[in-house]
Structures are given as structure tokens and as C-alpha cells.
């Protein structure tokens, strides 16, 4: 009757050759001594040869055992390397990474950093999905997400890299039109359209500003910053967006209740994939030192 060699049996043979004894192989594999002996017996039966001589001082490879060990040398390493390539854990970073982030964070914080990351890893391709919706990382709609949220999704893992502040701004040109020492009652306000109505700044506006004082509503924080810079009126802006627009004046310091935490997130199943880990660690290290974010200590 022809017997077939089982790979599991070969693994036990390789372990005994590598670790030098039955006991050491059993310990490395997390099994008991008798399991190793049974697997070796199964392999010898399948090959119909004796692979080890049972000596008083232990087990020694026979000639056939040496031939088998030589023939399969490197197979274990090749299989491990193949597994790393399949799961993305190969040392060489290749393939694509799908990153999602809102346009505000992409413009204010990310694009220049992603260019630096791409230069470091030329064999990686970045696919950017720029929107405010939380794509389903479980279904691989994205691999990594950078999000502004004080309550990140519980099914994702990641780290907070800092806090993005919001302050009240106007253009210097607009302030000049109000005359000397204008009060806030003279302000024309730029507000939030429905897609931004969930923001804390939008809630503040609803609670503190009469609707007739709102002369413009926009559905994008970038458009809001552009409208303030154009002189429509005053508005609550993310500080990094305001700082890159010349001529804007901060009218109030950033209130803590309008703070938004910034997170680098991925799915638990992806965090050990080498290319995903490389990107998330790069973003964490660089954004954690970014002076445009507030970094609370303690």
C-alpha cells in the first residue's frame, strides 16, 4: 500500500534536525515528547525508511535521514517567506495602500507627509480616498483612515496623534470695513450647511448667533476658510487651514469645547501587515510632532 508523506510530519522532522533532540523539538513546537515520536514514526512509515538510529545517548540521523534533511533544507524558510508575502509581512514593502481622509486633513496635514512616505517607499502605491465618510475597513474599502473624531469607531484600532483646534477668524480687510473697535454684534457670520451641521462649531453657531446674521452657509470646511479669506464675514475655522491663508486674523483663542482629536486608524486584521504598519507608524510619528496640532502631555 502506497503511503503519502504528510507535511505536518516533515515539520516535526525538520524541528528535530534543527533543535538537535526530541525534547528540544517538542518544547519548541509546544507538544509533548510522545507526539514528536509518533510523527517521526508516521514519516518513516510513509517513506519506508529508517530516519533515525535510536542510540543510548539520543537519536542520530541515518544516511537516509541525512539525505532527507539535505533535500528539504530551506523549505521551512521558503514557506515562511511565502506566508509573509501573502499577508504583507515581507521585508520589502510592495503593493498598494488605500488611505482615506477628509479633504481638510488631507490639505492641512497629510499631503506633504504622504509625498515623503512615498519617496521612502517607491515600490508602494498610495490610493487616496478623500471624503468625510468612514469607509468600511472590514471590507477593505480602505486600509488606513485618518479621521478627526472625539469618538472613533470601536471596531478599529489606532492611536491619537494630537488635537486640531478651531478658532474664530476674519480677514483683516473685512475687519477694517467694520470701523474702529467693532463689537461682535456687527459681525456677519459664515455658517454650516447640512453636511456640517453635526460639528461642535455648527452647534455653537445655532446657540449663539441669530439666523439673520448668517450671510453664507457652506458644506465644506475648506470652502468655509476660503469664504472667510474672501471677506464674507467671520467664521469658526480649523487653525491649520486658517494659518496657511494670508490676511486672516484670529478673533478668539481656540475654545476647548471645539477641539477635535485626530486619529490614525486601521482594522485589527490589517495592523500587522507590513505596508500598513509602515504607513500608520510613519503617520503617527510625524503627526505626533506636528506643531499645527496640539499635543497634550500627561
TrEMBL record:
Q: Which family does it belong to?
A: Belongs to the LysR transcriptional regulatory family.
Transcription found in the keyword field: yes
Q: What keywords were assigned to this record?
A: DNA-binding, Transcription, Transcription regulation
**SUPFAM superfamilies attached to this UniProt entry:** Periplasmic binding protein-like II, Winged helix' DNA-binding domain
Residue span, HTH lysR-type domain: 5-62
Q: Which InterPro entries match?
A: LysR-type_TF_proteobact-type (IPR058163), LysR_HTH_N (IPR000847), LysR_subst-bd (IPR005119), WH-like_DNA-bd_sf (IPR036388), WH_DNA-bd_sf (IPR036390)
Q: What is this protein called?
A: LysR family transcriptional regulator
